[in-house]
Protein: Urea ABC transporter ATP-binding protein UrtD
Organism: Deinococcus antarcticus
Amino acid sequence: MPRVEPRQITVQPPITGQETLLDVQDITVSFDGFRAIQNLSLKVPRGSLRVLIGPNGAGKSTLLDTIIGKVRPVGGRVLFAGRDITRLPEHVIAGLGICRKFQAPGVLEGLSVRENLLLAARKHKGVFATIQGRPTQAEETRVQELLTLTGLKGKADVSAAELAHGEKQWLEIAMVVAADPELLLLDEPTAGMTAQETAQTAELIRSLVGKHTVMVIDHDMHFVELLQAPITLLHQGQVFREGDLDTLRRDPEVMEIYLGRPKENAHA
Ligand SMILES: Nc1ncnc2c1ncn2[C@@H]1O[C@H](COP(=O)(O)OP(=O)(O)OP(=O)(O)O)[C@@H](O)[C@H]1O
């Protein structure tokens, strides 16, 4: 397959008239001299949803790692709500309201759905949280909100171990949401899900938008389509294209480097 050189394009912010929450400015990330990300810039408006796609090795995870402070760029900077967070320690960045799903305390299988959510809500308030003691009114309200959000109301008292794969993923998302993050980063949230679970996950994520800003990485184009959100396509560590799915699908170079590749993208 001929190599298609990535080119930086200038794109209008997909959602106009909104304040930028995340402003990634010209970052370069190097692993022993290999540039996994090169001069990448990206703006995400507050309260919006953004989908990150791209071939394997395009730099999607590295970008999220850089945003959360796990990886340090050798050039450029990351602004969050106008503040330069590029050199801040990971826990400080998390404290500012950036949460990545895998950072969530995993679901505790020995506890019920309700108990997991209560624990997540309490952990948000203090590190040494337990499920001992009656929930306060505020905690009860929060748990109910999270149960409604995930559609798990009917399973509140079911042990987390008994949940289906998709339900467990929703519980995990709810546990991250319990921390009330301003920016939520989700890495392939639908991996291993059935088509119906995938559709419900898209609905769940869309319901978070507005109150939260959400960035999702996924390879499943059916899911991406359901999210109905602006897409940033990464390729070889750079922004290759930005736009809606229909526009990207009409672009022969996009088809060439990504959407036309059946192996990485069975649903394209
Ligand atoms: N810690 C590391 N050390 C060395 N190279 C790395 C490291 N992390 C990532 N890379 C390389 O950087 C490039 C980008 O990787 P990254 O995981 O960000 O891609 P990705 O778009 O998330 O891919 P995938 O869709 O397969 O998860 C790849 O070539 C990868 O091998």
